[in-house]
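Archive transcription. Copying these from loose printouts into the bound notebook so they stop getting lost. Printout 1 of 2:
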Amino acid sequence: MKYLKIAIIKKVVLGTLICLFVISCKHTEKKYHNVMEKIEGESVNYKEPSESPFMINAEIKTVLVEEDETAFLIPERKSQITSYNCVECHTEPLSVLKQKQADKKAAHWDIKLNHANSETMNCATCHTSNDMGNLHSLTSSTIDFNYSYKLCSQCHQKEFKDWKGGAHGKQLGGWSTPRLSNTCVNCHNPHTPQFEKRWPVRFNTEKVKERQ
């Protein structure tokens, strides 16, 4: 009988503790159990910002990017290329134009490709000799200059996925809908994409001495 009473008391105490735990869990300030619950909970009353990228960057011409289930805007490219439309100058094959460069304006014969080694890439990897108004993919699919990121994504898949998701590159106008993002060529020179090494804003003379 004694052991039966002890067992009953234990059950009562255990039940009470469980009830107190459940009640305290639901009524504490930490009402979310994980990050996803918090995001979903806090998003219920979310209101879109009153300003859109159109208002913040009204002077920027844009084109729409649609990749898988992601859609956003990027700056229009062709109007920013001072020598576009290419066929205005490229009226003859490159070999002929180079021979005649003495009496023609030399636009970009001095461009040096510093992107990959010559066995991997040359001018013809991206540019089409008989269609200079467009780019082309590794499988010879036509790519509009406005969507040159499609070229970059062929080799730089990791960066492309980050950029598509908004983790790589600069956002113009925040995250308000519709999203407006810089594209690859807004930050990288397509012929020399690697950024030059620079000193920090705060120049440290002691570090210079150490390096010497």
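Printout 2 of 2:
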Amino acid sequence: MGIRSWFGLDKPEAPEPARPGPPTTEALLEALGAIEAQAREGHVPGVVLSRLLRVTRIVRQTLPRLANLGIGSSQGYSVMATVTDYLPVAIGNYLRLPRDWADTRPIAAGKSSVMLLVDQLDLLGTTMDKVYDAVNRADAEAIIVHGAFLEEKFGQASAGGVLGLGPDPVAAPPPAPGSPGAAGAPAPSVNPLAPPE
């Protein structure tokens, strides 16, 4: 027996536990369903349920497009935290209170618990609207950039565009006054059998 065994240094180290990654889209969708079910089973007032459903609808629209913002974006974190923390805590805190007390007793700035919950859900709804706009704006920016590339490459669509395959007959400058082909100038006689000049 050596000195290492006295101090327990001869034992293999335990592997570090795996750290969970961010929740998947499927897990977030399940969490949304659970929050809605909790609110319905708790018989929250209609003003609360309608606002909750607004937030969950926007989140459901946002989730499939969230990858467009990039991994670790602040908007992505806001969506994840809304589903896993902000909504469950807000609804859970309200449901733990006796209903008559929560709906009638002012607790802060003259507002009852239900009024404060409505304010919180309105704030979350507005925030999720902004995130949804940011997600869609990323794709809209891609359309703008691609359109600018196409205009630079081929010209304006309203002018017929240019494919870059040779001289563009539409973009050729008009002939100078008095030169052959100008308005009012006599057309030169062309012998189709003559060699080109």
